[in-house]
Amino acid sequence: MQIGELARRTALTVDAIRFYERRQLLPKATRSTGGFRLYTAEDIEQLHFIRQMHELGFSLREIRELIDLRTRKIAACESVRELLKDKLSAVRAKVDELQKLESQLTADLRKCNQELKRRQRHAPCACPVLAQVTTQ
């Protein structure tokens, strides 16, 4: 099949497919006598794998490593386990960062709400969140 059909079947853009080829995540396509790229069912499977790994947060380098382990059909469980452990650790660290950010945003929102309530009874003053930022 040609690249347009491959794009349709994988829900990727033609540019994304070419990008994966340039990054050597997808093997170079054979060419028809007219010079069109020709793809196979294996290419569809490979692109689905790339997309799934990307959705799990793996980088292109990590995906290339997983593809290599997958295509060489070596005993890859230990290597995959290490990649998964590293990825899980990174995700947990990101979750911690996001929880701290959520906490700070909640506190700042609370300050804004308190100031707006106070303004109903008194003269307005500077926004406490903006004032805090300049003093830190």
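Above is the first protein from milestone M3; the second protein from the same milestone is given next.
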Amino acid sequence: MTDRLALSRPAEILLVEDNDDDVELMRIGFAKSRLLVNLHRVRNGEDCMEFLRKTGAFANVPSPDLVLLDINMPKMDGREVLAEIVADAKLQHLPIVVMTTSAAEPDILAAYKLRCNSYIVKPIDFKQFVTVIQALGDYWFTVVVLPSPA
């Protein structure tokens, strides 16, 4: 992790994912990494925005260092979440990694136009999925310098 984060606390990651199997693969990937993370999960975009804004049931949650966002979700999809984050001055600083099954060029372009920081197509293979999660954690928490939480 960045020295500042590594010395002070675990990384806080918000996982916005409706698929329980993908959540479990991410938990395994982070557990196999050498990184200390707290993985928080919400199932849809509406809950994501409540978590980020610390409203309702999420009033006392920590501010995430990184958001892992699925695109295709119920209630409010990832594109809508990205649009709300970009429009909210209090949330614009958050690094957002889109993790989805879609490799469609229009989805990729739309996510980047909405200012996601990275776009990852979820691997189907278990080993590769875990490797991607470990690489993602290494990159965001050992290479990148993140802003302090709000």
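Note on the second protein: DSSP finds six helices and five strands in the chain.
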